[in-house]
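Can you give me the bound-state structure? Components:
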Amino acid sequence: MRQITYHIHRYQQGRAFVQTFKFDYEADRTILWGLQKIKDTQDPTLTFLAACRSAVCGACSVRVNGEAMLGCEAKIDELTERYGTDELTIAPIGNFRVIRDLVVDWEAKVDRLKLVAPWIFLKAEFNEGDKIVRQTPADFKKFVAGTECILCGCCASECNKLTARQDDFLEPYVFTKANRFVLDSRDDAPMAHIQPAFDNGLWKCVHCMNCISRCPKHLKPAVDISNLRKEATKAGLTNSKGVRHAVAFKDDLYKTGRLKEVSMSLKSDGVVDSAKQAFYALRLWKHSKINPFELVVPQKPVNGIDGVRRLMKAAEEVSK
Amino acid sequence: MKYAFFPGCVLESAAKEDYLATVAVAKKLGIELEELDGWTCCGASHVQDIAPEITLATNARNIALAEEKGLNLLTVCNTCTLMLREAKNELDKNEKEKNEVNKKLAQIGKQYRGTTDITHFLWVLIRDYGLDKLKAKVVKPLTGLRVAEYYGCHILRPQTELGFEDYQMPTSLAELISAIGATPIDFSRKLDCCGFHAVYPAHDSVMQMTGSINKDAATEGADCVVTPCPLCQMQLDMFQKEAKEVVGGGKDMPILHMSQLVGLALGISPDEMGMPKRHLTDTAAVTKFVG
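Here's the bound-state model for the whole set.
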C-alpha cells in the first residue's frame, strides 16, 4: 500500500521538533485532509487551523516544502508528483510567531494591519441625501481584485524583506489592503492609507516577488506596493531614498536612455550618506567597477534619444 | 543561431566583465549576438513605481527594435528579462493597451507587433543551444569545483511572467553547472533574494540578506557562487565585505557571473573575462581549477 509521509514541524510548550507521520495514500486528497487524518488516527495533540475547507477563509495556510499554500487547496497528488517523492515537509507559515504546531499568532499582525486603516472613509455622496450616487462599473473594476485577499498570510511567509527584518516593513497583504481602498473611488481619505504605508516601509520592498508567487488568490501585492509608491510620490511623499533612486533612473532614461551608474549613490543616498561611503567607492574604483571621472563627463545619449524623450512625454501626459 | 542582444545598463558599467564574458562565450559557441542599436534602460524595477506608463512605452520600443530585425531578444540580466517580459505580456494580452502604446510609438516611427520572444542567456544555452552540444565544447572541465547555484529572483518569479521552469524547484542552473564538469551543491539559498533593488532604502536588511547567502554558501562547502544575474553578482560581490560584518564572518566567497563560469570551461582566459581584476572578492579559488 502506497504511504504518504509528512515530516511536521511541531512546537509545543516551548519545544520545537520535527515529527514524522505516515498514512495510507488516497487519491484526490488535500494536504489538510492528511493533517486531519493524522489528528484523527495517530496524534490528537497535533494542532492546526482550518475552517471553510474551500479556500475562502484563509485559516489553513501552511508551508509545504518551504512554500506557503492553503492546506485545503493543495493536492497531495500534485505535490508528490511535483517533488518526485511521497515525503513532504509541513511547517507553519514563515514570518509569524508560532503559537503551537502549525498555528501562528495573528493578533500582532492585525495590529499592524490596522495601521493602514483598512476600511473605507465613505464620500458623502455615496451614503447621504436624496440622490445617492452609485459607483460606476469601471470604478468598481479598479479595486475589486484587492477584495479577494483572504488574509491567509501566504504572501508574508516567504517575504525576504520580512525575514530579514520586520520592524520597518509591513506584510505584503497590508499593502494590498491599503491599495484596495486607495483605488476605491468611494473612499474620501486616500492619505489615511498611503501615509502610514509610506511611514512603514513602503519603499523597503526588495522585489523578491515571493508575495505574487505565493498568493492562492492570484493577487499581486508587489504591484499594489508599486501603485502605492506611485500615489505616495504624486501626493508629495518624496523624502525617501527609494523615491530618489526611482527618480534617478527615470531622469537618466530621459537624459541619455541609460543609467549613469556612477552618480546613483549620490542621487539616492544624498551627499552625506554618499560621502560616508568614500572608502567603499575607492575600492570600487580600484576594481574598475566605477570611474569617478564619469561624474563630470557627460554620458553619450543612445541613438534615437529624441524619440525616447517624446515617447516618455507622451506616456507621462496620458498618466496625468 | 542569432539573437538581438539587449545587454542592459550594468553590463556597460559595473558589470562590464559580464559583457566581456557573454560576448566571448557566444562567439565560442557560434551564437551570434547583434546588439540592439538605441536600446534603453528597462526601468530596472524602479521607474514603474513612479511612472508605469513610461516603463511600458519604452520597453515596447525596446522590443520593437528587436522586432524590426526579426530576431528574438536575448538578455543576460534577470531584471531586464522580467521588465521586458512584463511589458510584452501586458501588450500581448491587452489589445487596448497595445493600441494606445502603438499610437505613441507611431509618433517616433516605431510599432510593437508582438512577434519577438524575450529570452535569457541561461535559457538559450539550455533550450536553444542544448547542454549536450555545450558539453562537447568544454575544453577545461571544472572537475571538483563545488558551485553554489544562485538563480536570483527575476528569472523565476513571478512564474506567470517567466515560466521557464518550476519557480520553487528550478534545475536549469544546476544542469548547466554539471554540463561543464563542475558540481552544483544544491544550495539551500538558491531561491533567496540578494536584496539588490532595495540596497539604498533598506540597507540593513539587505546586508543581512547578502551576508546570509554568502555565509551559507561557504558553510555548505561551495568554492564559489554562480548566478545568471549581473545585479545579484554585483550585490554578492561588491557588498560582501560589509555584509560579512553584519552576519558575523564566513570565508571569502568568489561570486561569478554564469557567463564567466561557462567561459572558463570553454577555455576563455580569466583575464579576458575581467577575472580577478573586476572582482572585489578574489576569484583565485575558482581559476585554480583551470590552471
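A couple of observations. Chain A has a mean pLDDT of 95. Chain A is about 40% helix and 10% strand.
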